[in-house]
Amino acid sequence: MARIIGGIGSSHVPTIGVAYDKNKQDHPAWAPLFKGFEPAFKWLEEKKPDVLIVFYNDHLNAFFYDLYPTFAVGVAEQYDVADEGAGRRPLPMLPGHPGLARHIAEQLVNDEFDLSVFQDRPLDHGVFSPLPLLWPHDDKWPGAVIPIEVNVVQYPLPTAMRCFKLGQALRRAVESYPEDLTVAVVGTGGLSHQIHGERTGFNNTEWDIRFIDLIEKDPMTLARMKHVDYIRLGGAESVEVIMWLAMRGALSDDITKVHQNYYLATTTAMTVLVFEENDPAADTGRTAIRTGNPQLEGASEIEGTYVFDIQTATKRINLNRFFWNMKNPEFRATFSADEAAACRKAGLTPEETRMVAERDWIGLVRYGANFFVLEKFARLVGETNLEVYAEMRGETFEEFLATRQVPDAR
Ligand SMILES: [Fe+2]
Q1: What is the mean pLDDT of residues 243-263?
Q2: 302-403 — its CATH code?
Q3: What rounded mean pLDDT belongs to the chain?
Q4: Residue 37 phi/psi, 5° resolution?
Q5: 36 CA distance to ligand 1 centroid (A)?
Q6: If one looks up domain 3-277 in CATH, what number appears?
Q7: Which residues have their alpha-adjacent CB atom under 5 A from ion ligand 1?
Q8: What is the average pLDDT across 341-345?
Q9: Is the confidence at residue 10, as pLDDT, over 80?
Q10: Catalytic machinery residues
Q11: Predicted confidence band at 266 (pLDDT cuts at 50, 70, 90)?
């Protein structure tokens, strides 16, 4: 089974990335920051977790206000680095862990935490500011990351208590995963800072030190605090420390703080904490191994039915995107002008191209095309849903209509 071996709390201020890319590790102003990450780097080097689960927020780089999820877990094979306006940082693509990520999504939703799921979104400094200081990455990263995005940029935010409980649910999910994996949980976000308005530059070291103490020994006190308390005590943007509560919720109470660094360089208190589980193999007795989605047990035995889940969504994203793009008039025109060329350009496999050419509706559904994108394809090629239904059932249109109350429907 998968085990949580510890947790890391870290600031993710983008200047860490800028200083890192400019090789300022030995600059007197930056050295205390970089030195502060070294014990965390060594801890990871020694413990070698297979997976880091990172609670982070996106700073309007991969998500925008048209749809900003409260919680979203990444289930992709890999993640790119977001271009935040100054070009993509020279870091390798970051591997994900689709198996554990899918399991986390299934178990958390069944535990009544309704997370969104994402695939094709790059990760910004919420992950990539601290990560290069925690893991070596000359040509590739030494493990996988499962990013869990938390909304801390548009109120209403999830409460600190909700984040703490999300961490507890995450632990249950991880411990129920059958594969032997070691996992460290990371919560990112600055401690005290404010970066907008006349109060810009606000810091409160006294509060930061108290927060550092409470997150270890009494996280429930932090979990009970309101967002306004965090704003008042630590500055408006410091409310993002609720992501540390998610990390702490995923740990047991039998932990040791093996590292702490606090350095206030510019506007954000740059902090690194490492908590180690004293007995990661301890059986908490809370969870048994579970696989799959308990809501769907037995569904595969229901004839002629193909449940669309995250596994299908990740495996068949290219084909589904191809049909989804048919809501776009230019894409429709390109397809109609030369179907084979459009399939080639979209990178469809020969098998997918054949099913498209033959309008093999049932083949496409069995393969993993979602009906709600297929119906856009049907509109484009002049078939009604009723005609598609008939073909999927292996009937003529007339035979299918005879089974309905509206036999003259077209
Ligand atoms: Fe942030």
Answers
A1: 97
A2: 1.10.700.10
A3: 95
A4: -85, -20
A5: 19
A6: 3.40.830.10
A7: 240
A8: 98
A9: yes
A10: 125, 193
A11: confident
